[in-house]
Input
Amino acid sequence: MIDAHQHFWQPARGDYGWLDPSDPILCRDFAPEHLAPHLERAGIDGTVLVQAAETVAETRFLLGIAERTRWVEAVVGWAPLADPRVERTLDDLARNRWFRGVRPMIQDIPDDDWMLDDVLTPALRALIERDLSFDALVHSRHLSRLLVLLERHPDLRVVVDHAAKPEIRAGRFEDWAAGLSRIAGETGAFCKLSGLVTEAGPDWQLEDLRRYVEHVIGCFGPDRVMWGSDWPVVDLAGGFERWREATGVLLQGLGERERSAILAGTAARFYRIGAAGGQSGESKGDDH
Output
């Protein structure tokens, strides 16, 4: 198994502007030693560590963790995509072999059309040329813009984070489902099966999730869907183990090959992990 989406952070670094200092659940340090027991209990062999701050400094911090943590197999960082010197930044980050791509925090950008600004074209071309991925952290309202972006740059390797955050708690489905179906059917984008319980709220029940999970798998197919815990954010809605157990139930109707793709194979191919990418955490000396 591969957890395709997890985070570490240290609020004292000062670059997590979205963290509420009064939040007793998330506003504290999260490090490898805190996640390791969850991974062991779930039988997870490797993770994809994803940025949570809009700074290159945080990306370097995460790359340092990856260097010394056996089971961190890839890092998705951040880069200033509108900066004319972004290619230099990407080349510098890519000197670290665990760096696999970037994630602009689109959900927090006031301008919903930001991703379509021509100023980003050189950065997007640079990602394609370097075979770096693009994690699209979007809401349902962004899906029409994301479709345009992917039509402009069909060779950009994109994964939609958290299935574009459907409004499960409010019971909204149709607009989200239609937008995601177009992304799946008209582009080569992938999708993360993650973050859904947070959108469903702390009192979610298994059946609240079912039609959303089935829609994601139905329109993308198992070979373009990857499971992620979204730890520690998942602690807002029941925690790692509850989401992992729910996933097992929701995937019961699939065959072994399909489950294996969602739980490991898709992430390995997309992020070039292990045999799928020619690199493996087994070469690291430390075991945190």
About this structure: The beta strands are 2-6, 46-50, 72-77, 99-102, 133-136, 157-160, 190-193, 225-227.
